[in-house]
Amino acid sequence: MSGRALITARGLGVRHGATQALRDVDFEVRAGEIVTLIGPNGSGKTTLLRALIGAAAPSAGTVTRAKGLRIGYAPQRLALDRTMPMTVARFLALGGGGRTERAAALEEVGAPDIAERQLAALSGGQFQRALLARALLRKPTLLALDEPTQGLDQPGVAAFYALVARVRRTLGCAVLMVSHDLHVVMRESDRVVCLNGHVCCEGAPTIVSASPAYRALFGTEPEGALALYRHAHDHRHDGAEAPGCGHGHGGPVAQAAAQAATAERVD
Ligand SMILES: Nc1ncnc2c1ncn2[C@@H]1O[C@H](COP(=O)(O)OP(=O)(O)OP(=O)(O)O)[C@@H](O)[C@H]1O
Questions:
Q1: Which end of the chain has fewer surrounding CB within 10 Å, N or C?
Q2: Which UniProt keywords apply (predicted)?
Q3: CA of 197 to the centre of ligand 1 (A)
């Protein structure tokens, strides 16, 4: 990645009370890139995203944000009851901007006609578009999207990612995303970061998935991406350190996968 660093974390640790959610995370988001955080439930994806954008405080290390950085954030959960009577226009108004900006944002996300619809009456895809439109109102240099395709069917997921890619092209913003949609993630991200309380592996998905070791282990189908996702996590952490991953990998297959992935590490 050649863009300037928008956010840099060094030795980042985050605790939630007694829970050490993240430790020793070194991470950068660069201008214009789409970087996606993957990992099992509870692996710290939301925590990392929130710490990077300044919504969660580090317990160790540093997070540096570029001067003038504008972040548009679509959270995983809204502090708002979606069944509450509220139109999309009103919901967007809470995010700031005037009527023209709101209309432009809805246009940008391909949902120009939903302004007067009730939030509760939106489909899953329309609701995610409304959330994205709200994040766009700040004219962000970085879009932070936490599981933006939650609850969408496969065509809905693909359409949403295509939309995010288009928004990135149009606005030139970086996108930092949490996602479980591994097959699409592997196709649409510039960089994938696999978390499990720390960074297990990271790299350009095309290079990782095209590497002979990766293909030998996982093939090239979407299931392969799923296997990559699983490799670092469905194993015992038994103390045998795998090169570059900083935690134990349970067997030679997982170790080879880890090597294939970390070989393309982008630092
Ligand atoms: N507010 C909180 N209070 C206490 N513990 C928390 C809090 N938020 C997160 N945690 C814990 O921190 C760890 C990381 O949580 P986080 O939500 O970041 O994971 P995640 O990878 O985003 O999970 P998921 O895929 O399920 O959304 C988990 O063990 C979680 O239980």
A1: C
A2: ATP-binding, Cell membrane, Ion transport, Membrane, Nucleotide-binding, Translocase, Transport, Zinc, Zinc transport
A3: 10
Contact 116, 87 (CB under 8 A): yes
- Distance CA(96)–CA(101), nearest Å, equals 9
- Check if CATH label 1.10.357.140 holds for domain 1-70+140-222: no
**Predicted pLDDT at 205:** 79
Among 23, 37, 45, 53, the mutation site with the greatest number of ligand 1 atoms within 8 A of its Cβ is: 45
In the chain, where are the structural domains located?
Answer: 1-70+140-222, 76-139
Phi, psi for 106 (deg, rounded to 5): -65, -35
Q: Which residue has the higher pLDDT, 195 or 73?
A: 73
- Compute the distance from residue 22 Cα to the ligand 1 centre, in Å: 10
pTM of the model: 0.80
Residues with CB under 6 A from ligand 1: 16-17, 19, 21, 39, 41-47
Residue nearest atom 16 in ligand 1 by C-alpha distance: 44
What is the CA(6)–ligand 1 centre distance, in A?
A: 24
Phi-psi region of 159 (alpha: psi -120 to 50; beta: other; left: phi over 0): alpha
Residue type, 256: A
Q: What is the DSSP letter of 119?
A: G
Query: Which residue owns the Cα nearest ligand 1 atom 23?
Result: 42
* Dihedral angle, C-alpha 46, 264, 71, 132, nearest 10 °: -70
